[in-house]
Amino acid sequence: MTEVICFGESRPCVLRGTRLDADCAPLTGPTDGIILAAIADIALTPEMKEATFLEPEDACGNVVFVTENPARVKRYSATINLIVIGHEARELLTDGTLIVGDVSSPWAGDSIGHAAPGLRTPVKPGVGLEFWTQVTADGASGPCAADPDTPNWERHVLPRATLHEAARTFNGEVSNFTFEGTVFANPAFGDPYNDFPGVTVPTDSPHYDFFDVAPPDAVCGYVTGS
Fold first, then answer.
1. Predicted pLDDT at 2
2. Which of 19, 22, 71, 186 is 20 to 30 Å from the Cα of 61, by its Cα?
């Protein structure tokens, strides 16, 4: 087994979301996926189960041994800032409700709005998220690299995220769409599009990432899920 490259990464360019069913498995219908571009930034912060140290002493005050229960990642906090978004993507990413134009509007039957969830809105199991960042290695990537097989992309997988829309400010500047929430491990997520280049899918990790060939093309509106 040989390391492909050592690399740096920047610029998240594409975000894919997949609706989850009640058992947290990815869904496959025509309104169960989104693929977005125009990402401002994505922030992930691990929430840890702190390490504990055991130092038992005998009756004479001597330390018998020292051992540690290491720190472990329980989950992640996530913040996603998008410059543009569609109402269908807002619905899929949150517990909100899509607003559809009626027959008297110019957009009869089309998705024209989004209602934020209220106290009685049913809670959804969340979404599976993947996003692609650009890779840089040896000064250049892709066709400009010394090795044309140098990866261009790193794919990050967040197998179950529960998100809500965060605070927005409306003024003379761009008002980004911000989503905040929590990311959990999800053994049911698997490889929903059968396009993981790895042979092993982690089952107990809330965040994993790997080299990829290219992200999917962004679309405004729903796409067919897994």
1. 81
2. 71
